[in-house]
Amino acid sequence: MNQNTMILSREFELTKTKICNLEDDKEILYKSLEEHKQAIQEARENMEDAHSIIVKLGNECESLDKKVIKLEKELVAAKGDILRLRTWMSSLETTEKVHK
User: Fold this and answer.
1) Residue 6 to residues 10, 16, 20, 68: CA-CA distances in angstroms?
2) pLDDT digits (tens, 9 = 90+) for 54-84
3) Per residue in 27-43, pLDDT tens?
C-alpha cells in the first residue's frame, strides 16, 4: 500500500504541475486574445475614420468640380466680354480715323 500511495502521490504532483502549466497557458492565451480584440477594435475604428475621410474628400471633390464648371463658364463669359470690348474699341478707333 505504501508503494501505491507513492505512485498516486507522484501522479498527483504531476497532475498538479500539468494543471498549473495549463492555467499559465490559459492566462497567456487569454491575454493574447484580449490584445487581438483590442487590435481588431483599433483597426475597425481606423477603417471607420478612413471611410469618413474618403467620403468627406469625395464631397469636397464634387464641390470643387462644381466650382471648376462655374469658373469655366465665367471665364468663357469674360473672354466674350473682352472680345466685344476689343471689337468696340477697334470700331471706335476706326470711327475716329474716319472723322479726322
Assistant:
1) 6, 15, 21, 91
2) 999 999 999 999 999 999 999 999 999 999 9
3) 999 999 999 999 999 99
